[in-house]
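Consortium newsletter contribution from the modelling node. Members have asked for a concrete example of what our holo predictions look like. Here is one, prepared for the flavin-adenine dinucleotide complex that several groups have been discussing at recent meetings.
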Amino acid sequence: MRILVVGSGPVGLMFCAKLSREGHECVLIERHDFNQTFSRASTLQPATLELLSEFACWPELLAQGEVVSDVMSWNLERSTQQRSSYDALSAQTRFPYRLHLHQAALRAELIAELQASRCCCLVDKADAVALQFDRCNQGVSVRVNRFGSSGLSQTFQGDYLILCDGARSVLRDQLGLRFEGYDLPTPVVRLSVPMIPDSLQGQLAGVSYVQSEGGSVSCLKMTDGWRFVLRPRLSELRQALAGTAWARQRLAGVFRDCVPAQWWESIPAMRDSYRVAQRCVKTRQVQRVFLLGDVAHVTNTRGGLNMNFGLIEAYALASCFLNHPDWQALQHWNLTWSRLTQDALMARTQQLLAGRTPRFLRSSSESFGALMRASLLDLLSYSKSLRR
Ligand SMILES: Cc1cc2nc3c(=O)[nH]c(=O)nc-3n(C[C@H](O)[C@H](O)[C@H](O)COP(=O)(O)OP(=O)(O)OC[C@H]3O[C@@H](n4cnc5c(N)ncnc54)[C@H](O)[C@@H]3O)c2cc1C
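And here is the predicted structure:
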């Protein structure tokens, strides 16, 4: 059985890594150079760590990431704090923590693992532009344009095609699938700094949701510093997307009672931003084509739920293929993950829109169940027990 995969983001790599680890061959087609180093998502939840821990690169991933057990919500105006710890999940997982790891590091390690396995044929600088089903639905082919080869075009044929080509997939459009949902009016703005002031050291947990009269911010501890995630209002958009001044001022406003404003002015900082949407496809399977990750769903990025969900479903589909599935088993995967996308991913991320505090910090009576859902540990059984 020949499996073609388009897209070497974290989700496509997870799918190929699982197949390759069990000695199953696949072809991975990527538009860019495999050495691209975008820094995007950074949170790996316990359920994902359970799956990644079976790969040879796991010790490297762990060594490069920041282990974060404590989460807090801090209202500076009311001087109230709620803290929660992933330790509460110790009986449920060997990994009762989040790992904050740059997406580029995750990609690099998974690519190195695939190169070492020799089961995955890696094809980069290859833009997949068209797909076609064989007559009689016995297979599927993808046409790619190779960069740097004076417009050379090449066709790959397989029994199945797995699309992991991200939110802007052109191949999804060719399948006639609608990416239904809506875009949020403003993007998220992220400021990365190498350190925080002494007055916040020991105050902030590794994940902190902070509110004050001056606004709200999510704070994430990374191995190389801190990331502050801010949500500008529509009226602030122009300033928010020009340089770092707006983000610095917002942070100075939020922390005005504990950090001098000049501190935020002088710290070296990098700003980036990304658009947020709540969108998904209704089905994950069209004949011999399957959709995984951002090509199938994009959501609010809080807690990295969207990427983690993509990684878990990719592992589940790869495991399904390793079981030599019949058509019914593949349809079962499709029905299960189409339903979970709506009932779990979309529902949970909807609750976190507009920077709302996660449920496990809001209500102590619900905290265990809410933490299980935020860690996606309740979905692990779907990726591990695949037979109908
Ligand atoms: C700027 C930015 C910042 C983000 N920050 C965060 C964050 O802080 N937290 C968070 O949780 N999430 C964040 N995200 C979202 C997160 O990066 C995605 O959820 C995650 O990368 C999804 O992985 P994926 O493998 O499904 O898709 P992608 O990572 O998008 O990978 C798709 C891959 O397919 C390749 N590709 C696309 N089209 C073709 C084609 N035609 N032929 C061949 N290859 C193709 C692309 O080059 C890419 O390598 C961010 C996204 C962006 C864009």
